[in-house]
Amino acid sequence: MKIDPTAIAQAKEYPLAAVAERQGVALRQRGRTLIGCCPFHDDHTPSLVIWTDTKRFKCFGCGAGGDVIDFVRRAQQCDFRTAVAWLLGTTELSPAPITPAPPRAARSTVLDQGAVRILDVAALAYHHYLLDQPAVLRLLAERGVSAATAQTYHIGYTDGQRLVPALRRRGLSLRRARALGLLNGQGEHLAGRLTFPVPESGRPAFLMGRRVQPLTEPHWPGEEPKYLGLPLPKPLYIGGQPTARLALVVEGPFDLWLLHEWGYGAAYALVALLGTQAKPDHLAVLQRYARLLVCLDHDAAGQLGTTALCEALGPRVQPVALPPDVHDVSELGPHGRDRWAAIAQDGGIVLQ
Predict the structure, then answer these.
(1) Contact yes or no for 278/305 (Cβ under 8 A)
(2) What is the C-alpha end-to-end distance of the chain, expressed in Å?
(3) What H or E segment, with its residue span, contains residue 322?
(4) Non-local CB neighbours of 24 within 8 Å, separated by 6+ positions
(5) C-alpha 317 chain-centroid distance
(6) Which end of the chain has fewer CB atoms surrounding its CB within 10 Å, N or C?
(7) Residue 248's pLDDT is what?
(8) C-alpha distances in Å from residue 122, one per residue of 55, 136, 140, 177, 180
(9) Which domains are seen in the chain, by residue range?
(10) How does pLDDT run across 49-71, given as a tens digit for each residue?
(11) How far apart are CA 77 and CA 284, in angstroms?
(12) Which regions of the chain are under pLDDT 50?
């Protein structure tokens, strides 16, 4: 029996943000959109965008998207009719908060050699392309990141035409690249973005992309998320001296790269959470350090993340605050090294 079109129209008027928040998604306003971490995969970016005017959502990490009915169907694992009935309040399908869909089966905690090889080829292809793009290198330089640091961390860039030829030259599987999230129905998942590999035990374990335009605007106001990752477990981003006793813990990759530019990677571990919330496996890594100088972004999410680290790791965590007019470490400006040293000293740590 067909559903009354009027009932469908009424169901679609149910506030999508309310359904997402019932799913446990913490949303924050960004222009005419709401953003948060997607509940349908292991997302810490965040990648979920809700357009309040069109009443639609899209996850730029796992690809989920649609209207409020699609959201309920995916979250509840139910059919169209049942989702409409739930939104109209005519079924007791889910009196409790909606249960998240199970994690994608493609994820695993340890990547096999084939997956590592594909991630490595992708990272190198993107890195080599960046080195031939003076305009993008110039944009990096405007943010204080030199070509030398780009080489150290294998920062890359892709126009969307780099990966498939690189994989074919090496006889590697395009199907496996799709399973890893590097390719999708539109082409390269990270097309038009700066890229950087996130290593684990010396091997690439993850790849992230940062939207290029406008690279000089730290707080991207557009509809797509500033950062995109892959549907894989995301390790901590660690540079500098990983075995040092003191780790400088920041939020994003630009923060880490600038600490490297300022010379702090020569003596200390540099750690970017790539978000604000450290997972249990991240905490296990952070426990290896005798002291952690933590400086997350100057916003509510950063403050919550800092508090969580203090509660989980105890007195080894030394939180420090940015100046009121500075959002993150990468905004400390041309005298960033001296300003960072002063911030650390305020926290009782004298850096070399």
Answers:
(1) yes
(2) 74
(3) none
(4) 39, 97, 100
(5) 23
(6) N
(7) 96
(8) 35, 18, 20, 9, 11
(9) 5-87 (3.90.580.10), 113-228 (3.90.980.10), 237-346 (3.40.1360.10)
(10) 898 888 899 887 787 889 999 99
(11) 34
(12) 92-109, 216-222
E-strand spans in the chain?
28-30, 33-36, 48-51, 56-59, 65-66, 156-158, 183-184, 187-188, 193-200, 203-211, 227-228, 237-240, 246-250, 269-272, 291-294, 317-319
Rounded Cα distance, 271 and 282, in Å: 11
**Tokens read off for 57:** 């959502």
Among 42, 41, 59, CA closest to 50: 59
The residue type of 167 is L
* Gyration radius of the chain over CA positions: 22
The Cα angle at residue 311 between residues 307 and 317, in degrees rounded to 5: 75
Q: Give the amino acid at 283.
A: L
Please give the structure tokens belonging to residue 64.
């989920």
Token pair 């590097």 is found at: 182
User: Closest Cα to residue 309, out of 230, 251, 350?
Assistant: 251
